[in-house]
């Protein structure tokens, strides 16, 4: 038994920073030092503290009790305890039977050392962490209580009388060490849960952004497809239809009236040239060829009216009239849309109305621009927007016009009745309006 020299041996007045494998909750599998750099450094610190305390305890004993008979046993048990502790990381952190046997032998060797030399009680705190890291919660707390009671008993054996510090200090140190370890374990669990939720939120955000981008691409594709279909209908399709009628008329009159047939062919040739210019313009920037020639919307409408009248060869006369003047140049998209609306409306007049006269009227107002297309044809019963008659064969012109007006935030009015002609009015506001995806007019 070790005798006191000078001041008595106190209990383990050590309150190191929390260490050990802080990768898992108390009683569960630790994540291992390699799972987290901070946990790895804390574990290394805890291991270093154990060997430092063990070496200090052995040095103190050798300095105070040199040459005693128990000294070889103390040295041998110290070496055994160090070797056993080194085997701990090799066995892993799961509470396997082999790991539990190792812990039991480790604690037993330490108890023998404390009985022989109470100074080795200083190594209790690292053993607290070892038990808390490996054992289930209740077993770990029981082991801490057992080690604490053993430290108190060993220290009281050295005291000359009852010393409250020897009774209260070891439990206080054990309680603080256990509380710190449990708190850090719970913080580690919360951090892992928070990191998991953050990863889930980031994944959801990325998935939502991908879905939104895909939706925008689909909507953009549909809008562009719809716009191109309207462009083709108002230009190339109309020109090809006119060429077909002119060539059919030339074929019918080729023998009876060669001059008329040649006029039809020349007119069809002019339309083909016009369509070729439109097709080339499509490839360039999809802008109307009439607008690309300069002069603005008014000049393009006058050119359109003259061309329609010439192509009809007296069967249809188209007049154009402009009222007012714009306060500022119209946006390109407004000019392009109004020209396409005029082309589509005149195509309907030429092919379906049987009219002999039609008029284009462009009116500039303070807050909007209005395009009116009227004819003296047979008229029809106007259907509500989005409704198509069952006997409609083509039926693409008016829905396309509605879609163009809707894209610009405007309104389309159709006034018609059987035998009374038709007036189509498209009003486009000049204030900026949000672009919308048009409905499929087909």
UniProtKB/TrEMBL annotation:
Where are the residues of the annotated region Disordered? 1-30
Protein name (Swiss-Prot/TrEMBL): Oxygen sensor histidine kinase NreB
Keyword annotations for this protein, in alphabetical order, are: 4Fe-4S, Cytoplasm, Iron, Iron-sulfur, Kinase, Membrane, Metal-binding, Transferase, Transmembrane, Transmembrane helix, Two-component regulatory system
What is the native source organism of this protein? Streptomyces anulatus
Work out whether the entry's keyword set contains Iron-sulfur: yes
Recorded hits in SUPFAM superfamilies, A to Z, give: ATPase domain of HSP90 chaperone/DNA topoisomerase II/histidine kinase (SSF55874)
Renumbered to this chain, the Basic and acidic residues biased-composition regions fall at 1-12
Any one GO molecular-function label of the UniProt entry: kinase activity
**UniProt-annotated location(s):** Cytoplasm
EC number of the protein:
2.7.13.3
């Amino acid at each position: 038994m070790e005798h006191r020299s000078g001041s008595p041996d106190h209990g383990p007045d050590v309150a190191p920073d929390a260490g050990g494998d802080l990768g898992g909750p108390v009683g569960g599998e630790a994540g291992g030092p390699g799972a987290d750099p901070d946990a790895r450094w804390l574990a290394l610190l805890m291991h270093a503290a154990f060997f430092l305390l063990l070496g200090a305890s052995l040095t103190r004993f050798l300095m105070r009790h040199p040459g005693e008979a128990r000294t070889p046993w103390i040295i041998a048990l110290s070496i055994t305890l160090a070797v056993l502790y080194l085997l701990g990381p090799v066995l892993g952190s799961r509470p396997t039977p082999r790991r539990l046997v190792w812990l039991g032998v480790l604690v037993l060797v330490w108890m023998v050392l404390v009985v022989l030399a109470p100074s080795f009680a200083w190594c209790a705190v690292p053993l607290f962490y070892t038990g808390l890291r490996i054992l289930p919660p209740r077993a770990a707390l029981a082991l801490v209580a057992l080690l604490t009671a053993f430290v108190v008993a060993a220290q009281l054996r050295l005291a000359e009388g009852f010393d409250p510090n020897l009774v209260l200090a070891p439990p206080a140190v054990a309680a603080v060490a256990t509380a710190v370890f449990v708190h850090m374990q719970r913080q580690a669990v919360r951090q892992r849960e928070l990191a998991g939720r953050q990863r889930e939120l980031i994944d959801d955000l990325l998935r939502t952004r991908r879905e939104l981008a895909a939706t925008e691409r689909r909507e953009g594709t549909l809008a562009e497809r719809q716009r191109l279909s309207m462009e083709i209908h108002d230009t190339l399709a109309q020109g090809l239809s006119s060429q077909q009628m002119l060539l059919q008329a030339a074929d019918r009159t080729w023998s009876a009236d060669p001059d008329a047939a040649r006029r039809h062919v020349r007119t069809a040739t002019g339309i083909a040239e016009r369509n070729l210019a439109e097709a080339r313009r499509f490839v360039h920037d999809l802008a109307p060829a009439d607008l690309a020639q300069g002069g603005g919307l008014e000049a393009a409408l006058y050119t359109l009216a003259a061309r329609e009248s010439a192509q009809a060869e007296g069967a249809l006369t188209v007049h154009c009239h402009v009222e007012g003047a714009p306060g500022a140049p119209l946006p390109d998209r407004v000019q392009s849309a109004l020209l396409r609306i005029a082309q589509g409306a005149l195509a309907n007049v030429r092919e379906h109305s049987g009219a002999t006269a039609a008029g284009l009227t462009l009116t500039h107002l303070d807050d909007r621009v209005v395009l009116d297309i009227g004819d003296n044809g047979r008229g029809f019963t106007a259907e509500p927007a989005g409704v198509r008659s069952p006997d409609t064969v083509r039926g693409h012109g008016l829905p396309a016009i509605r879609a163009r007006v809707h894209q610009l935030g405007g309104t389309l009015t159709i006034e018609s009745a059987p035998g009374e002609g038709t007036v189509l009015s498209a009003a486009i506001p000049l204030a900026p309006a949000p672009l919308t995806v048009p409905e499929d007019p087909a």
